Each structure stands twice: as structure tokens, then as C-alpha cells.
Amino acid sequence: MYLLHTTNLTLQSFYAEIPNYAILSHTWGEKEVTFQDLQNRDKDKSDRKIMAGNGSGSTSGKNGTNYFFLMDSCCIDKSSSAELSENINSMYRLYENAEVCYVYLPDASSEEDPRDPGSRFEKSRWFTRGWTLQELIAPSASVVFLDHSWEEIGTRYSLRDVASGKSPLGQRLLLEDGDLTKYSIAQKMSWAAFRQTTREEDRAYSLMGLFDICMPPIYGEGGAKAFMRLQQEIIKTSDDRSIFAW
């Protein structure tokens, strides 16, 4: 895995003895910093872009770690199909093992009460995306919501009633130990029912971690085939018949 060093903004690879790291969850915008940007950057010009684009400088000191891992942007070489497949299959674990997960919400504000019916927090695009479901559930440590200025709005614990309100996802899962074995296949599927992904295949791939499934992503196979493969892999390891009800 690649980790972004928050002081010198260089990528470093680790295969064993992985240091403590924080992880960033966000929805993609128009000007994302990529793996290639970091590898081929003009240091004087791009460091400012990197700091502004991912907020690593704003958050690195909050958790005491020297590394910041950006799961879906600059820490994955998406030009490598093998690396992309490896990261998709290990994504849930990477969020689970992080020291802290920062959720950046560019369309929310810490100046608003997130429980107000019209708050931008409640309406944030982040709660509608497929990949962010596991990013909300997986971390075993703290999940901290940050607004457009990187100011803290609250945590998964303090805002569990609001954070679970976008789907049938229960507060208990966010409050307790995150034990997914307590929930049926149909329940887990229902959590993602109204979430969307840019690539249709990702509706299936983004659920792999919730079911502890590994399978190679095949972009171009279509959403129906990807979901069928996911169901077939689930059936191999589970006798939960609620999958047929779903």
C-alpha cells in the first residue's frame, strides 16, 4: 500500500510493518490529485495544489500520525489493473485499520446544526454514494466529519442518529462494535439500495467488504453481471436465505 507523508508530500510504499495512518473519505470533485500528479509533480507548483486538494496539512496534526492515506485518489495507481483490483478487495480492511477516518464534506458547514431538517450535513452528497457506505461502517476507530473549511462538524458517535438516517442502517451498528455478522444479507443490501455510483459495476464492487467477499473487478461487464457474481460469491460462504428475498 502507498501512504502519503504529510510533511514532504511524498508517496511511500509499505508491504509489512505498516505505520499508523489516517484515512480520508470524500466524494470526487473536478480537480482531484492523482497518483501521477505526485509522481511527476513540479514540487514548487503542485505542493500547494496537493495541500489544498486533499487537506492533508489541515488534518495531519490532529491524530499524531506522519502519514495520511487517501484511499480513492492519489495513493492508488489506477493505471495498473492489478493494483486497482488489490485495493478494491482490501478497501474495507484499510478503513478498518486506520487510526482515524476523516470524512470531508465540501457541501456542509460546521456553523449549522447538523440535526436541523434543512442542514447541508443531512443533505450532503457523501451520504448518497455507494463507496461511502463501507467507509462509514468499516473504521474501528473514530470517524470525524469535516466541513468545506476542514472544521469539525462532529463524529460518527455524536451524530449517529443523523448519519444513519439516510438508509435503514441502524444506529446500533454505528454505536456498538460494528459486528456485521449480526445482520442478514437482505439488511445489508437494503443499506445500499438508494446509493449511487459513477460506474454501474461499482454498485456491486462497493459491497464486497460488507460481505467479506473478494473477487476481481471487471469493468465493462455491466452492473447486472457484477451483481450476479457478487451474489454467487456470497452464496458460496453463507447459508443465509434472505439473499433470495432481496
UniProtKB/TrEMBL annotation:
<feature type="compositionally biased region" description="Basic and acidic residues">
    <location>
        <begin position="39"/>
        <end position="50"/>
    </location>
</feature>
<dbReference type="Pfam" id="PF06985">
    <property type="entry name" value="HET"/>
</dbReference>
<dbReference type="InterPro" id="IPR010730">
    <property type="entry name" value="HET"/>
</dbReference>
<feature type="region of interest" description="Disordered">
    <location>
        <begin position="39"/>
        <end position="58"/>
    </location>
</feature>
<feature type="domain" description="Heterokaryon incompatibility">
    <location>
        <begin position="21"/>
        <end position="112"/>
    </location>
</feature>
<protein>
    <recommendedName>
        <fullName>Heterokaryon incompatibility domain-containing protein</fullName>
    </recommendedName>
</protein>
